[in-house]
Amino acid sequence: MQQRLENEWELSIDPDTVRLFILKAKALSAAVNEDYDDGTEHEVEFDGDGHDNHHHDGLAEEASEDLTEEEFRELINDLNVDEAAELVALAWVGRGDYEASEWVDAVAAARERANKRTAKYLLGLPQLADWLEEGLEAIGA
Fold first, then answer.
1. Other Cβ atoms within 10 Å of 78 Cβ, number
2. Residue spans per domain, the chain
C-alpha cells in the first residue's frame, strides 16, 4: 500500500466525481462478470425449427445493455482537459506507475497524452475502479 500524502495541491476534479466514476466502473465490471458466471452464456440450443422462427433484435439488445458504458463515456467526455488528465493520473498512481509524490509529473504526462480517446483508454483498464480508489487514497483525497 502506498503512503498517504498530505495534499499540496488543489484537484481540478472533485473527489466525489471520481467516486462516481468508480461506481460506474464497478457497475460495468459487474455487468461483464455476471454474463460469464456459469460459463454457458453463449451456448445455443436448436430445436430443429430454429431457422424458421429466429428473430434477433441485435442493435436494440446492445443499446439497452450498453447504457452504463455510454453514460460513462459521456461523463468522461464532459470533463475539461485538467479534470481528464487528473482522472488518468489517479488511475496511474493507483496502478503504481507513479508514486503519490510524483503527482505533478503524472498529471503532466496525462495532459501530454490527452486526446479524444480518454474514455476508451480508461474503459480498457481492467481494474479501473480499484486503481482510481487507490489513487484517491494515495494522494489523500
1. 9
2. 15-35+67-139
**Nearest alpha-carbon partner for 29 in 104, 129, 99:** 129
pLDDT value, residue 43: 46
Contact 15, 136 (CB under 8 A): yes
Kindly provide the b/e burial profile for residues 34-68, where b requires at least 16 CB atoms within 10 angstroms of the residue's own CB. Answer: eeeeeeeeeeeeeeeeeeeeeeeeeeeeeeeeeee
pLDDT band at 36 (very low <50, low <70, confident <90, very high): very low
Question: Can you give the pTM of this predicted structure?
Answer: 0.70
* Tens of pLDDT, residues 61-86: 444 455 678 888 998 999 999 999 99
Cβ neighbours of residue 133 closer than 8 Å, sequence gap 6 or more: 22, 94
Which three cell numbers, joined as nine digits, stand for 48?
430443429
Nearest one of 37, 5, 13 to 89, comparing CA atoms: 13
Q: Do 139 and 98 meet the contact criterion of CB atoms below 8 Å apart?
A: no
Show Cβ contacts of residue 49 under 8 Å, excluding neighbours closer than 6 positions. Answer: none
Q: What cell numbers appear for 19 in the block?
A: 467516486
